[in-house]
Amino acid sequence: MNQKEVSAWTYHYSNKSYSWNYSRAFCQKYYTDLVAIQNKNEIAYLNETVPYYSSYYWIGIRKIDNKWTWVGTKKTLTKEAENWADNEPNNKKNNQDCVEIYIKSPSAPGKWNDEPCWKKKRALCYRASCQDMSCSKQGECIETIGNYTCSCYPGFYGPECEYAVQCPALKSPEQGSMSCFHSAKAFQHQSSCSFSCEEGFALVGPEVVQCTASGVWTAPTPVCKALQCQDLPTSNKVRVNCSHPFGDFRYQSTCSFTCDEGSFLVGASVLQCLDTGNWDAPFPECQ
């Protein structure tokens, strides 16, 4: 086994020749995988530094569902990334499903050719500079020669995707409470807050809101509204005097009843709206 190093990212190749499948197993066992070429600069570097070998080298492309695919990322090969030799791929005998690279080929240096996967060639491997914690696990780690770059997932930013988009801070609703889960800092992307109300109050709005990648909550903060009791019946004989701390005939409203002179009250002289949304006694009458 030999290697060529470029800072954090190293290239390696086998001294022996193997089939494509065995070459990939070799690379995965000792390094990361067969080379996944990102750009023309990488091809030029490999062609310059890796030694010539008459049977050439396998790289990490093969045909999957009739599409040329980078096996490490399972992404389809794009036209911009292709580097086929002239008149390739030609799929002779309909069995050329793997790809070799012509290292130091006199006629087509660095170009690609499709070949039957059983043929024996050297394995061209790489050891990734991307590690488990690269990009803070909040972005896609993209290998470059000698280093890597981070393509941050929505809601994250920074060289290592280490920062999260902030949402405005929230407060508990009046007569209610709020409980929040924060992955790191408070009120940032992926934070979620749940709301509940005290007895006698009902939640108006969503029970849970989340901080989105655009820095806004999925909904406005809900409010706690006092439960409504039944309106009092009207009567010419009964006089009513009420206090409403949370709105007309709502939770904790209290009403007192009196009768005109010559009549007497049948029932409770004071009613209160309970936390169930019901009055604590039937409506009284004047007789």
TrEMBL record:
Cystine residue pairs: C152-C161, C197-C224, C259-C286
Molecular-function GO terms, alphabetical: carbohydrate binding; metal ion binding
Domain Sushi per the UniProt entry, residue ranges: 165-226, 227-287
Domain C-type lectin: 6-126
Subcellular location: Cell membrane
GO biological process terms held by the UniProt record: cell adhesion
Alphabetically ordered keywords of this record: Calcium, Cell adhesion, Cell membrane, Disulfide bond, EGF-like domain, Glycoprotein, Lectin, Membrane, Metal-binding, Repeat, Signal, Sushi, Transmembrane, Transmembrane helix
Record's keyword annotation contains Cell wall biogenesis/degradation: no
Subcellular location, principal: membrane
Pfam families, sorted: EGF, Lectin_C, Sushi
Keyword Signal in record: yes
Annotated EGF-like domain residues: 126-162
Membrane topology: Single-pass type I membrane protein
GO cellular component terms attached to this protein's record: plasma membrane
Entries under PANTHER family matching the protein: COMPLEMENT COMPONENT-RELATED SUSHI DOMAIN-CONTAINING, P-SELECTIN
Complex formation: Interacts with SNX17. Interacts with SELPLG/PSGL1 and PODXL2 and mediates neutrophil adhesion and leukocyte rolling. This interaction requires the sialyl-Lewis X epitope of SELPLG and PODXL2, and specific tyrosine sulfation on SELPLG. Interacts (via C-type lectin domain) with alpha-IIb/beta3 integrin ITGA2B:ITGB3 and alpha-V/beta-3 integrin ITGAV:ITGB3. Interacts with alpha5/beta1 integrin ITGA5:ITGB1 and alpha4/beta1 integrin ITGA4:ITGB.
Similarity comment: Belongs to the selectin/LECAM family.
Described purpose of this protein according to its UniProt entry: Ca(2+)-dependent receptor for myeloid cells that binds to carbohydrates on neutrophils and monocytes. Mediates the interaction of activated endothelial cells or platelets with leukocytes. The ligand recognized is sialyl-Lewis X. Mediates rapid rolling of leukocyte rolling over vascular surfaces during the initial steps in inflammation through interaction with SELPLG. Mediates cell-cell interactions and cell adhesion via the interaction with integrin alpha-IIb/beta3 (ITGA2B:ITGB3) and integrin alpha-V/beta-3 (ITGAV:ITGB3).
Protein name: p-selectin
Organism encoding this protein: Cervus elaphus hippelaphus (European red deer)
